[in-house]
Design goal:
Layout lengths: L12 H14 L14 H4 L1 H9 L24 H28 L9 H9 L4 H16 L26 E4 L2 E5 L21 H18 L6
Antiparallel strand pairs: 1-2
Helix pairs in contact: 1-3, 1-6, 3-6, 4-5, 6-7
Length: about 230
């Protein structure tokens, strides 16, 4: 165990080990599925994403809305946002504490150190279904979500997912100069983004629900971890 492994906002070291191994089965990478070409939850350190979400209110401003600035800062919450997010985080904390206990019991001891077959059986058990789905959602978000929310702030190398570039981000070249990118105007810089005012549905929560639904549809074609 390295020094960084002890710097958890919410998890105990054992809970972090269980969540890491469970997420690695749900979203496997090369270390967990030989021949897998892309990174998985282990390589993306998705367990840190979950820990940051569950420990969001251990710091100020809470780790909910990333500012998008280079310093990695987060935006302050309105009173309404704070109440809503505290409820969500509190529910998730209870779910993780209970879920880790269930996985340990189903694996007949320590889930993290159990043989792979025992871990697979535990995750497939009907008693773990609700927690498994939550772990899958967070594993996908932590692996493929915006880097500002990941536990690993400086990845060793960029990860290309083979997705088409967003419209407006194409690069054109001309003989007269270097590549030219359709970049946004200076007024659209991340530091100029205003925090959500709390009117109407929370856009980040809505986006997360759509993202999780899409990820489930993609994964369902091969089954979890498949």
């Amino acid at each position: 165990m390295g020094p960084d492994d002890r710097n958890w906002l919410f998890f105990t070291p054992h809970e972090a080990d269980v969540v890491r191994e469970a997420m690695a089965l749900l979203v496997p990478g090369p270390a967990d599925a030989p021949g897998e070409p892309g990174p998985g939850a282990r390589e993306a350190d998705a367990v840190r994403y979950a820990d940051q979400l569950l420990g969001a209110f251990t710091v100020e401003p809470p780790l909910v809305y990333a500012s998008g600035r280079p310093d990695g800062s987060f935006l302050p919450l309105t009173p309404a946002q704070r109440r809503g997010w505290r409820r969500r985080v509190s529910d998730l904390r209870r779910a993780y504490r209970t879920g880790v206990t269930v996985l340990d019991r189903l694996a007949r001891g320590d889930f993290a150190s159990a043989p792979p077959a025992s871990r697979h059986r535990a995750l497939r058990d009907a008693e773990a279904a609700v927690f498994r789905d939550q772990l899958f959602d967070h594993a996908v978000e932590g692996t493929y979500g915006a880097p500002a929310y990941r536990g690993r702030s400086a990845p060793a190398s960029p990860v290309l997912l083979g997705l088409p570039a967003p419209r407006g981000a194409e690069t054109a070249t001309t003989p007269a100069g270097p590549p030219r990118t359709n970049a946004p105007e200076a007024t659209d810089r991340p530091e100029d983004v205003e925090p959500y005012a709390g009117e109407g549905p929370d856009p980040v929560a809505a986006l997360a629900r759509h993202f999780a639904t899409a990820a489930r549809l993609i994964a369902s074609s091969g089954g979890y971890g498949g």
